[in-house]
Amino acid sequence: MARRSFSLMLAWRYLNPRRAMLSAVTLISVTGVLLGVLVLVVVMSVMAGLEKEVKERFLGYMPHVRLEFVPFGGFREPLEQWRETAEAVTKVPGVKSATAFMQDYALLDVEGKQRPVFFRGLDTHDQAQIDGITAMLDQKDHPGSSADMGLDDRIVISSIIASQFKVGVGGKMSLYSARNLESVKQVYDITAHPPVREEFGPVLEKAKELIAKPWTKRGERLYLSDAEADAIYLPLFDIFKQGVRDPEKEIITKALKPIDDGEQVEGGGLLLDAETPKKMAAALAELDTTDVAQMDAAILKGIKELVLPKEATVIGVYKASQMALSPDIFMPLPLAQELAGMKGAVQGISVRLHDPYQADQVAGALIKELPQGWRAITWTEELGDFSRLIAQQRMMMYFALSFIILVSAFSMMAVMFTVTIQKRREIGVMKALGAAPGQIVRVFVYQGMILGFVGAILGTAFGLLVIRFRENLQEVLRQFGFDPFSSAFVGFDTLPAQIKANEIVIVAIAAFLLCSVAAFVPAFFAARSDAAKSLRNL
What we know:
Blueprint: H1 2-15, H2 24-61, E1 65-69, H3 82-89, E2 95-110, E3 113-122, H4 127-134, E4 154-158, H5 159-165, E5 172-177, H6 178-191, H7 196-199, H8 201-212, E6 216-218, E7 221-224, H9 226-241, H10 246-260, E8 263-264, E9 270-272, H11 276-286, H12 292-306, E10 310-318, E11 329-332, H13 333-340, E12 348-353, H14 359-369, E13 374-378, H15 379-382, H16 384-422, H17 424-432, H18 437-468, H19 470-479, H20 487-490, H21 501-527, H22 531-537
Parallel strand pairs: 3-11, 4-10
Antiparallel strand pairs: 1-12, 1-13, 2-3, 2-5, 2-12, 4-11, 5-10, 6-7, 7-9, 8-9
Pfam family, one: FtsX
Domain ABC3 transporter permease C-terminal: 399-529
Keywords: Cell membrane, Membrane, Transmembrane, Transmembrane helix
């Protein structure tokens, strides 16, 4: 006990050799540790807060589990009778509500300025989704914003769109369906083709020759073997599948119908009506008389009616973040269905849970309850890339900023080396009086431990203080024209923060241990010095 008290007493004396309030060496050493811990505590809390706030925003409007019908394992199929499935889904334990899911792209036009936008349709009868949008509204820059879209053509836009197009609450926007634009492109490609009689002339001539040949008679009907039927049918069906005009498709369908109506013969072949060759020849002859200009004019006239825009009124603006992708526009489900060309159908079922963090377990239960062909996508999968990005950013920040504490530890090591050199005579005297090497090591290790402990405690305290008054600090910085966390980028007026006690404790302990190790190295070499040489040289 006496030895421990001796080492500790001497450590305190070396930290404050002139009996002043604080020595310069002590102050510098503690400040280095303090700043390192402070920066790490603030950065960790801010990064955790950003992740938490962005996730909460997403969970306010996005489905916790999205159900899609993929009977063939590929692309999802539209759901027309989705309400019955949604009602069955709500009976699964853990499910809070189930409603329609709809999202797509459209072309936005405001006074001649256009850009593609990503929209999401909301079932306005689901109050939870409306509340999620309401919590995101930007009442500061766009007062009067509301999420009460009803079933009308009223929309809520992101602050990014509002800024780009200089549109606020009450503004008007025109929305063109991207699906209709795809149809326009398809029609344009079709009208660029020559008529079928020119593009597939040799195929049609071969089919006419086969039709004109004598067919085998069986009583009052005609017989075609499978090979003969395929020789006529398959080339014409291949033309039908090409990008040809609708009137030409109708003619080819008329030519193929007699074979489709044929009676299968046991053992192979078809029995056909005696007038089949004449009907097919007459149908194919119509392809020689089609008016290309007239067909194209009819197609283009129909497209002109198809691409009429929907004019929507902006009733709210929500604060968007550049950190993660979010919909440009929220709109009522009927408007979203119309723009997506779904005609009353939906893309899937949006399932909200009592506990979003149980999404994986509930998704498994849903798949067991539903028939084969359904697929469940959880919000953790949807936000997988974002979560990994945030986690990677946090790790990179921790890695980079941890060097501040490491540099502080090396600085403390340099200070301790200087102190041991200054105290060589005293160390020699202590060894000459019988002080054990362990006592001498502990003198300087205790110094490092005290500095590390005080620095970690003060750094943690000041870090929590900065987090507590971060809004005031942001306002001060903004008054000087410096805003490192612009609300236009992060999507929050006040930088969010979440204090994680376990992470803060780990940082404080790491700082304490590094300082202790840093002090041990010079203490070890000091304890090994020869007492006689130390006394003789000084």
